[in-house]
Amino acid sequence: MKNVFIHHVYFWLKNTDSKDDLATLVAGLEKLSTCATIQSFHIGKPAATSREVIDGSYAVSWCLLFANKADQDAYQTDPIHLHFIETCQHLWSKVIVYDSVDV
Amino acid sequence: MKNVFIHHVYFWLKNTDSKDDLATLVAGLEKLSTCATIQSFHIGKPAATSREVIDGSYAVSWCLLFANKADQDAYQTDPIHLHFIETCQHLWSKVIVYDSVDV
Question: ipTM of the predicted structure?
């Protein structure tokens, strides 16, 4: 992959064992995936891997590919995104975001 | 993206300001990208974004897509991968890995 902006978000749930909260967050991300500037997306959960360097403590991985930073910036203020934050932010206790562009 | 195993690694350099070390790590990853089971890859650096939730402190992002866990497992023991670790591990001070599969 070249000429891409990767926006990778990891969510930790407030109610770590709540399957309902997990399902609500995933449903919210599915709606969020309709934002126009998203090229492709992946909604993930931790894989069944375990080594010292692996952080498998998160609940949901949200990986987005954009064509460029401008498209990612547009996503941040997209009404669909703002609605997602408003309706889902009570679900998570922690979020880490890593934004990457070509070296 | 569906039916995918995302292996996303973030590297922090020991010599944080060394452009040579950064270039050596990137060159190592370019060689590493030839592992047979990798579907696609991205070698990244932090984007020019800054919010409270964004961790932009890493030096290099290494994002790999595999068809499934078996292919990722094969990558872990691929001689090209073992050679990469042997020749490049002196460069980094910290590595965090997030492995994700479809929810």
Answer: 0.96
